Amino acid sequence: MLATSLFGGVIFQIGDLKLISGLGTDAMTAVIITNQTIRQVFIMLVMGASFGAQGMVARAIGNGDQEGADHVAGQVILLGALLSLFMAGLGFWFPGEMLTAMHVSDEVLEVGVPYVRYVMVLNFGMIFVFLTNSILTGAGDATTPFIVSVVQSIVGLFLEYALIFGKFGFPEMGIRGAALGFIIAQFVSALIIASAILRGTTRIHLRARHLTPDLAALKRIISQSWPPAIQMVSGFVVTIYFVRMMGSFGDTAQAAYSIGLRLGMVGPMLAFPLAGATATLVAQNLGAGNVSRAWKSLWSGLSVHASLMISMAIALFFYRVPFLQAFSSDAAVVELGDEMLFYQSLTFVALAFQFVFFRALQGAGDVMFAMVTSVANSLFNVALGTYLAINLDYGPTGIFISGLVSSALVTTVTAAWIATGRWTRKFPQAPRA
Predict the structure, then answer these.
(1) What's the gap between Cα 297 and its chain centre?
(2) Residue 299 sits in which domain range?
(3) CA pair distance 189, 15, nearest whole angstrom
């Protein structure tokens, strides 16, 4: 899972950002804002569904119910197809309106609309890969997602380079090429993983009966999926809110914040799969009725995840300026981004514990506490950030401070709930076919 995130997340994100930076600041801002706000809202919905599905599949596997795990997988893919259609409709009809809502400049809007339309309309590959990777991980198969991530990164970066700049006989398409390269790579990955699960060469074997709508199963899956989805969306609504607010501080502030967001995601993207592995182990052990081993899984996952995140916090703290200078030569952008990454590196320490706590709760089926806590914390973050940035006239610094404070607060509250042990008694069984 760690290698999967390294290839499919960190390496691809850094390579993608470097390629996009060759198109200029406006194009880079448009791409980052699209991916970190507009498209990210839908990714958070998919992640929420995948968290619920991963926990249910893992509990079914732990309980020895292979057919139940396969059935959950099929029903989750049906839900993903519905979300894909909705996302495509919005992208086709309202790309300009969605980008305008981010309070971007006219120049960013002009270059960004085609990118928004492409990645939103042609989204099915992305959603399918995301959901099936989580399903396979819940079943204990981390190898197939790794292979898919390697293929996806290699194909995606090659095609983006070729289509952005017109290399190897491909047409020069600029920002449209960035979108198409990413999309084609997602579809190639989807074909690979679909072939595996339909042929039964993985720990999930989909058959036609699993893709027949089952209202009872869909209801239980949704009941486990909507709280994590709301939890994830609430956090990124905060990001959208602050991206808009940054726009009011000028193009430089928004560009610096956008680059800082992408760089600040590298650490969580690399470490988050370790929290996902913890969720799988917690769910499988609770499904097997082994509570003590579920606790052991939590502490083992926490020790590895925290060690990695804190190490990356140290690296980000000391090398934040060189990181920024690799993607922008604008001294003002680098200066503000430096301040943002300073606070981001401190936030990594809280995230080192927070991610594992939340994923363990979701794996255990205790999804309501995680959701309520996250939504309340998002509201607190918005209120504090607005007060510091606007009322106290701290500007962008107020937003950076509020992110650090809110992360520390929600981590403390969640740790207290974990200590009660009530989450070990809340897991539901997966619906049987």
Answers:
(1) 23
(2) 2-419
(3) 18
Residue entry with tokens 């968290």:
51
H or E element that contains 277: helix 266-287
Residues 6+ apart with CB under 8 A from 192: 147, 148, 151
Amino acid identity at 103: H
C-alpha to C-alpha distance for 346 and 287, rounded to whole angstroms: 36
CA distances from residue 106 to 17, 23, 30, 103, 251 in whole angstroms, order as listed: 21, 16, 11, 9, 11
Angle of helix 143-165 versus helix 124-138 axis, rounded to 10: 160
Tens of pLDDT, residue by residue over 325-366, are 887 778 888 888 899 999 999 999 999 999 999 989 988 888
The 3-state DSSP class for residue 259 equals helix
The DSSP 8-state label assigned to residue 293 in this structure reads H
Residue type, 139: A
Name the one residue in this structure whose structure tokens are 């690979």: 192
Domain for residue 106, yes or no? Answer: yes
Point out the least confidently predicted range of 107-116, 122-131, 223-232, 396-405: 223-232
Question: Could you write out the three-class secondary structure of 75-117?
Answer: HHHHHHHHHHHHHHHHHHHCHHHHHHCCCCCHHHHHHHHHHHH
Helices and strands, counts by H and E, the chain: 17, 0
Eight-state DSSP code of residue 142: -
Residues with Cβ within 8 Å of residue 66, at least 6 apart in sequence: 60
* Alpha carbons 156 and 47: distance in angstroms, whole number: 21
At 161 the three-state DSSP class reads helix
Q: Is residue 433 part of a domain?
A: no
Whole-number pLDDT of residue 234: 85
How do residues 253-303 score in pLDDT, each as one tens digit? 877 887 787 777 777 777 778 888 899 899 989 988 899 999 999 999 999
| Counted domains in the chain | 1
pLDDT tens string 388-415: 999 999 999 999 999 999 999 999 999 9
